[in-house]
Amino acid sequence: MKALSFPKSHRLLKPGDYGKVFNDVRIRVPHRNFLILATPNTLGHARIGLVFSKKNLKLAVQRNRVKRRVRETFRLQPELPGLDIIVLGRQGLAQLDNQTVTATLNDLWSRLVRKHRHAQSSTPAPSRTGKGSD
């Protein structure tokens, strides 16, 4: 059962944690109903923070339903790299059913992993040639 838990260590808890992601966005995964922002961390596992406003989801029951879906799909993603992730809700979420939200989020998680791998592979390694080489 431990593999399926969602401990506090996998959540962004403090305003400073959110600020680090908002101030240093390395990966953006946009979608019509969601926006995922991410930046690498040194913890070795992903952490998630949620931002769903009343402007986009009027009723608390709608916000809570979507947040439950986000947390559940995040929890079931074993291949997520060490990133601090913020999921923002956009307009139109209230009209989506649970199946659509889950399918969309699963697609967004896989896009996030691909973008992270691409960013890692495209990061240039420090060159060994330069001053002092003959």
Automatic annotation (TrEMBL):
Q: Which UniProt keywords apply?
A: Endonuclease, Hydrolase, Nuclease, RNA-binding, tRNA processing
**One example GO MF annotation:** 3'-tRNA processing endoribonuclease activity
Question: Which protein family is named in the record?
Answer: Belongs to the RnpA family.
List the HAMAP family.
Answer: RNase_P
Q: Where is this region: Disordered?
A: 115-134
Q: What does this protein do?
A: RNaseP catalyzes the removal of the 5'-leader sequence from pre-tRNA to produce the mature 5'-terminus. It can also cleave other RNA substrates such as 4.5S RNA. The protein component plays an auxiliary but essential role in vivo by binding to the 5'-leader sequence and broadening the substrate specificity of the ribozyme.
What InterPro entries does UniProt report for this protein, alphabetically? Ribosomal_Su5_D2-typ_SF (IPR020568), Ribsml_uS5_D2-typ_fold_subgr (IPR014721), RNase_P (IPR000100), RNase_P_CS (IPR020539)
Q: Which reaction is recorded as catalysed by this protein? A: Endonucleolytic cleavage of RNA, removing 5'-extranucleotides from tRNA precursor
- As recorded in UniProt, its EC number(s) are 3.1.26.5
Q: What's one GO-annotated cellular component?
A: ribonuclease P complex
> SUPFAM superfamilies in the record, alphabetically?
Ribosomal protein S5 domain 2-like
Q: How does it assemble?
A: Consists of a catalytic RNA component (M1 or rnpB) and a protein subunit.
GO terms for biological process, alphabetical: tRNA 5'-leader removal
From what superkingdom does this record's organism come?
Bacteria
What name is this protein filed under? Ribonuclease P protein component
Compositionally biased intervals (Polar residues):
120-134
